[in-house]
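Archive maintenance. Older records in this collection stored only the sequence; we are now back-filling the structure field for every entry so that each record is complete. The fields below show one back-filled record exactly as it appears after the update. Entries are processed alphabetically, and Peptidase is next in the queue.

ARCHIVE ENTRY
Title: Peptidase
Organism field: Microtetraspora glauca
Length field: 390
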Amino acid sequence: MNTRVKRLVLPLGGLAAAGLIGSTLVAPAQAAGDTATDPLAASGIAAKNVVAFWLNQKAANLVNASPYETQIVAKHISKGGPSPDSKPGTVAPTGNGGSGRSKNVNLPKTTGKVFFTGSDGRPHWCTATSLQAKYRNLVATAGHCVYDTESNKATLDRWVFIPGYYQGKAPWGIYVGKQAFTHYDFDVYEDGDRDYAFVTVYNGIKAGSGTSWFDAAEWNWQEVNKATYDKYSQYIRKSKGGKYYVVKFTDVGRLGENVGGQGLAYNQKLGKYVYVFGYPSGSHPDGNYAFSGKTLKWSYGKTFAAKAPSVKAEELVGVKSSFTGEGSSGSSWLLNYSNARRIGYLNGVTSGVADTDGNNRIDTSVSPYFDGELYGIYKAAANVWSGSIA
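Back-filled structure field:
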């Protein structure tokens, strides 16, 4: 599968309606069974320098980042699709989303944007969500939002997750990726049926007292020796009067403790309804401007089988959705979503969108089928500690 920053147009073999019921630290750049894992920011100083890239020039890279785009075009309808490879199972969520009833859909606190630099060296973003894990430190998104499918140099660079991000605001802090996990077949072969990834993140940090990253006047500084000073990026260090200073980051705690973590559901039958939460952006193929990408949106629909053999994807899941392809990659598909608690069970992540009836309007999102092999990748990631960088 080729995931490009510019519009990705891939033929989809078909969409068909069907029925839905009912540690140890992993060494970098290795594969154990189906699991492939690679480092993102391997040390605290490396993680702080990642943050420096996003803080630079009043958070210009955050504000000006463009969405990754993913579009699949359906040509005809055909039968087939995924099937369970073992017994169905779930992992319970942890909630931190509030309570109370509402006639409207209460948006989850777990969803946010992941920012990274692509193979073009420019800043981009996808959608992602916080997922329940032993150390409350796990993020789930599309595989192509973590692994570089353009230059094939393993992972994308400067990877961070900001739940609730809005125009430079980080209400619950910024979380730097530490270790990435995906299926071996996606890492090596770009198998579209395995276009998912899990990322352990360090504790969240802030650089000042507010939620904005724009104003360097808000930042706190600490004096350090010259050797320490030399390890930091120029954007989060300063010297004055023969003394050396670096930004003093504040630890805001673990991701799951701040926003909660969605549960996980795998080997589920098709046909149940899911909520899809994401940050779609841009226009439909006919030019109709649909979404800004600035605010979290939702759609709701029943899952069904889908195929995309031309991109080595034979067992995808589809759901009717008008989310456009820009920014919606990695959107969370939540089964049994509780509107009061704002939590449910992750049962898909958007890997592409499609216009299935040829009217130049996006009408379908697709995801890899969550099976037992995915659960194995999840388990490998969910038991890895990351810790603090502040």
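Update note: The chain has one domain: 9-382. The two ends are 38 Å apart (CA to CA).
Entry marked complete.
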